[in-house]
Design goal:
CATH class of the largest domain: Mainly Beta
Order of helices and strands: HHEEEEEEEEEE
CATH superfamily of the largest domain: Immunoglobulins
Strand content: 35-45%
Number of helices: 2
CATH topology of the largest domain: Immunoglobulin-like
Structural class: alpha+beta
Radius of gyration: 25 Å
Number of strands: 10
CATH architecture of the largest domain: Sandwich
Shape: elongated
Strand order of the largest sheet: 1-3-8-5-6
Length: about 160
């Protein structure tokens, strides 16, 4: 055999092997529930809260957001984060913030409501951190319907 023939034969074998490999892969697309989790939905009963005017030196303020599994399968809250380091949150005693995610998962059964608590430190940004603010708390779930649930709060921070 000549070198040209050997090269053509090697190319043909590579192409044939690639085609066999591609056709041997499953042509079925996995269902969303098999790939990522449940088709249940997590709903925040209240998605926004306004603290109104708060004093920068008045200490932390806290609000609660009930979240309900409106589906027929359990939902697992796999992680959480906040939009700013001045904000922390917790659900079922599992705390998290912008820099530290959840150290354990929280399961919410069908029809069950859990309380998501958000805490804001108005003095976090220093004595000049006044004005209108909006912050977000994000829960990440195993649901393909609601992979993230976001709630927001606002305030007008003033120096009294």
């Amino acid at each position: 055999m000549t070198n040209k023939t050997i090269i053509y034969l090697a190319i043909a074998i590579l192409i044939g092997g690639g085609l066999i490999w591609l056709t041997s892969q499953s042509s079925e697309t996995p269902s969303p529930t098999a790939a990522t989790g449940t088709t249940a939905s997590l709903k925040a009963e209240v998605s926004q809260y306004d603290f109104g005017t708060i004093d920068i030196n008045g200490g932390d303020v806290t609000t609660e957001f009930p979240v309900t599994n409106t589906g027929e399968e359990p939902i697992i809250v796999v992680d959480g984060t906040t939009s700013c380091a001045c904000t922390s949150a917790e659900i079922e005693g599992v705390g998290f913030d912008m820099h530290k995610g959840m150290n354990s998962k929280v399961t919410i059964e069908p029809g069950e409501t859990k309380t998501l608590t958000a805490t804001y430190d108005p003095l976090f940004h220093g004595p000049n951190g006044t004005g209108k603010i909006t912050r977000e708390v994000i829960l990440k779930t195993n649901s393909v319907v609601t992979p993230e649930v976001r709630v927001r709060f606002a305030a007008n921070v003033v120096k009294n």
